[in-house]
């Protein structure tokens, strides 16, 4: 088939198949968390009122995501990507040897990172809320704990971005764009596209 510009359209066999992986709730949660955390650690760091309300938005997004992790579509569910120690260790070993399989959803390391970021962000939100209570007003230990959690989130987020870029290069797939569009290349060969119980 000839396209309007005179070039030949790829045959169905040459066109890579795609599959919808990330639903709108997962994508909206991801970018809400990214935007909120970056904003609160930079431009809103000293704007206490705005910082607080952005924190509330983040906590609300986490609450929705936690529910969605049990009732959402397949790749949104915790059962699809929360790996036990043996499966995680096996994946990390394969990754070091540069023979890790491509996962359609979160791989075991990505799943662990997601859980860590959710829990740390929730902890940061709770400690931030506590700082506004009369019982904890001006408590230096609480402010230090909140600050440490926030800095840990930023460090993990940077590691997460680097890992996503490396994995994108390793598997020739733009993982950042997939979290924008929701689409990824369909499974083939040794790709993993099934939920397996933690072990």
Automatic annotation (TrEMBL):
The keyword Disulfide bond is assigned to this record: no
Transmembrane intervals: 53-71, 109-129, 149-169
Compartment annotation: Membrane
Domain of life: Bacteria
Bilayer topology annotation: Multi-pass membrane protein
Keywords for the protein's UniProt record, in alphabetical order: Membrane, Transmembrane, Transmembrane helix
Organism: Brevundimonas nasdae
Protein name: Cytochrome b/b6 domain-containing protein
Domain Cytochrome b561 bacterial/Ni-hydrogenase: 21-182
Matching PANTHER family: BLL0597 PROTEIN, NI/FE-HYDROGENASE 1 B-TYPE CYTOCHROME SUBUNIT
Cited InterPro entries: Cyt_b561_bac/Ni-Hgenase (IPR011577), Hydrogenase_cytochrome (IPR051542)
